[in-house]
Amino acid sequence: MPDTMNKSKVVLADRYAQCNLPDPELDKIINLIYQRAGIVITRQRRDMVCNRLAPRLRALGVESFHTYLKLLESTPNHDEWQLFINALTTNLTSFFREAYHFPILAEHARSRSGGYTVWSTAASTGEEPYSIAMTLDEVLGSNLTGPRILATDIDTSVLSKAKTGTYRLNDINNLTQEQKKKYFLRKVTAGEQQVKVRDSLQKDVHFQQLNLIAQNWDIPAPFDAIFCRNVMIYFDKANQKRLLNRFAKLLKPGGLLFVGHSEHFNNMDSPFRLQGQSVYYLAKDKV
Ligand SMILES: C[S@@+](CC[C@H](N)C(=O)[O-])C[C@H]1O[C@@H](n2cnc3c(N)ncnc32)[C@H](O)[C@@H]1O
Questions:
Q1: In terms of DSSP bridges, do strands 184-189 and 192-197 run parallel, antiparallel, or are they unpaired?
Q2: 113 falls in which pLDDT band (50, 70, 90)?
Q3: Quick one: which of 57, 82, 201, 270 could link to 244 by a disulfide (CB 3.0–4.6 Å)?
Q4: CATH value of 101-165+198-286 in 3.30.565.10, 3.30.70.2860, 3.40.50.150, 3.40.50.620
Q5: Active-site residue among 3, 36, 52, 97?
Q6: Residue-wise pLDDT tens digits, 11-53
Q7: What topology does CATH give the domain 4-88?
Q8: Per DSSP, what are the bridge partners of residue 120?
Q9: Which residue has a Cα nearest atom 16 of ligand 1?
Q10: Is 186 a catalytic residue?
């Protein structure tokens, strides 16, 4: 699915093609986004950084990156910090992305007793947690009180979209007819065909802002499964390792960790062992 959030960033980028981001300011931005979000950006991504932040300068009526950074750094709690982070995240996602994970999740949920809970740690615009919700509903039914999926992200703008549960009709192309009917309502907004996640599914998902590199997480652990897909690729080894160790403590015995297909941790000294297809379980001696 083409990602709407990234698309809008690209559209804005086109408008600010004449971006001027000098080396010292680029280096500062690289440093700040790493400190605040753990995201590693190299100097080679100058154009991306420049084009994504240029609209922020425009919105504030600021003429240079130097002035923009002075504003940020002079006020550690300035609201602009969040918008700075939102601008620099990459939010690409889709329903049932890396589809092979969902039958594994279904089988795992089927095999366990008690309330099954999942944490989607980089939920972006919501397609991942809603895909998890559909999978669990098909396996476990919906007669459960309270949400069973915690969906978090650092980016407040994607979370706002996720909470609306509203998507373009084309975004659910790869769902079965049954899933479309059971889990979505159709509507037309401003002439555009849209779908909205039904309340019966939406109630299973609780959205909350959370920074994966923050010292403390206020979350209802433990979980049967943790999805941390396509976000650790933006982190360095030290933060990846730290995250894996923290996840290990938040999984129930026999729980599973799902990561993106390009994220490999088997050779890293971590408490997890590869079960197959980018799904990890806790090593026995680490439980
Ligand atoms: C490429 S999307 C992945 C979405 C989904 N997990 C998937 O695989 O389709 C990466 C997401 O990670 C989020 N992210 C980046 N740094 C983060 C951090 N430090 N804490 C929490 N989320 C973060 C971004 O905002 C973005 O929405």
A1: antiparallel
A2: confident
A3: 270
A4: 3.40.50.150
A5: 52
A6: 444 444 468 999 999 999 999 999 999 999 999 999 999 999 9
A7: Chemotaxis Receptor Methyltransferase Cher; domain 1 (1.10.155)
A8: 151, 227
A9: 37
A10: no
**Cβ atoms within 10 Å of 17's Cβ, excluding its own:** 10
Atom 9, ligand 1: which residue's CA is nearest?
93
pTM of the model: 0.93
> Which residues touch 57 (CB under 8 Å, ≥6 apart)?
63, 64, 65, 68
89 lines ligand 1 (CB under 6 A): yes
231 touches ligand 1 (CB under 6 Å): yes
Domain with CATH 3.40.50.150 in the chain: 101-165+198-286
How many Å lie between the centroid of ligand 1 and the Cα of residue 210? 10
- Give me the residue label for tokens 């080679």: 44
Taking only the tens place, the pLDDT of each residue in 138-191 is 999 876 666 699 999 999 999 999 999 999 999 999 999 999 999 999 999 999
The answer to whether residue 52 is catalytic is yes
**Pocket test residue of 35, 153, 210, 259 for ligand 1, highest count of atoms within 8 A of CB:** 153
